[in-house]
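so i finally got all the pieces together for this one. its two components total, 500 residues if u count the protein bits. some of the lines might not be protein, just check the labels. i wanna see the whole assembly predicted at once instead of chain by chain like last time, that was a mess tbh
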Amino acid sequence: MALSTVLETPGAGFNFDNAARNAALEGLFEGGQTPTPLKTGTTIAGVVFKDGVVLGADTRATSSDVVADKMCAKIHYISPNIYCCGAGTAADTEKTTDLLSSNLSIFSLNSGRNPRMVMAVNILQDMLYRYHGQIGANLILGGVDCTGNHLYTVGPYGSVNKVPYLAMGSGDLAALGILEDGFKHDLELEKAKELVRAAIHAGIMSDLGSGNNIDICVITKEGVDYIRPYQESEYKDDRKMKYKYRPGTTAVLTEKVIPLKLEVVQETVQKMETV
Amino acid sequence: MKDYHYTGAVENRFSPYAFNGGTVLAVAGEDFAIVASDTRLSEGYSIHSRDSPKCYKLTDTTVIGCSGFHGDCLTLTKIIDARLKMYKHSNNKTMTSGAIAAMLSTILYSRRFFPYYVYNIIGGLDEEGKGAVYSFDPVGSYQRDTYKAGGSASAMLQPLLDNQIGFKNMEGVQHVPLTREKAVQLVKDVFISAAERDVYTGDALRICIITKEGTKEETIPLRKD
């Protein structure tokens, strides 16, 4: 049995197979509104500290001006030693990180090794550049491998930056202010977690697209600590009145009961093997 | 095939309007009226102020809530105040809520072709002392209502008010008249819900309760994120 190709080299150039179909679909919405993709309107941040990497994210997902999800998970699993925060179009960040994760687990199973950060970054960059910005994914990758602790950012057009600390999303400027002020090389674990928490908190308070709770993910050589939520939102919805309805409040206009006539055609008995 | 990168001439216009967010709500009772608004002033994804209420007291018995473009809200309330003074000096009496509503309609329509980007709701007591709510569109169309929500979260609040105050879509429920305490609690609950799901609504809630004794104000905190 020959070893199947682990990862297929993607076809050359841009793949615009769906462009004609998309244009035709848009024609169907004439006069109406095309559905807007769900954007995460986010604050995400990452910091490299002495023993590893800390990633942080808020948990609000917005669909234009309405909060669609109050507890969405923006820190995605890539491999046991690599996690990725995603900002931008929610579907794009989900699917891109899922695809990356699957490809890397095929690699791990074939080679018996944990993937290196540079491999994850290269695969992402390849894919996002190929789609020429059509995939709206702004990603912060953090991980620990045999060469050390790394933090990378990959943009939607395929740009890559290797950085010691970073914030992305609509709340990035507020978070970056905190990071610029508090970052030092080789921070201790608790200080690094507090720095990332404060950065995300600044994003949550200053940016309308970020809010609710804070998730933190600590990646070290020993393992991963995914704390969700690290800090719960201090705002609880304390509505005083009860808004419950008695059964029968909604008017039933007509009721139609159609009995299904069933007859037994065939009966088979299969014994289950239980030890 | 759609052009993804347009390479022709592009016109960049200056827009005279901005959307500053905010939600306003007014409820009319048997002998009271409530006008409530959140206090967040935003632009884009940023917050300008956490303490900018949108209810403005016009007379002892009338409060107006204005949301939309803050610049036009300020100018419009200044114009209304001036007109109220002029009326007081000419006619030796305060304008009634109905009269203010009719006047506002003409003020707004006079700018039909460069509108005030403001969603107005007037709440007050009519000549008989009963609660009155008048809701407007940006060019002056208005009508008297029992309750109305306007601004960014209006689409979320209006159906809830239709159900709880108007008893719409409910069978076999007793139509109890709305008491002042229940109305105030309903307004608070409704804004707490709006702040959960609308990004432009939050920070604090300012409630103005208008009775024949005068206007009382109450402020309660909302989500700040």
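Chain A has five helices and twelve strands.
Helices of chain A lie at 19-28, 90-111, 117-130, 172-182, 189-206.
anyway lmk what u think
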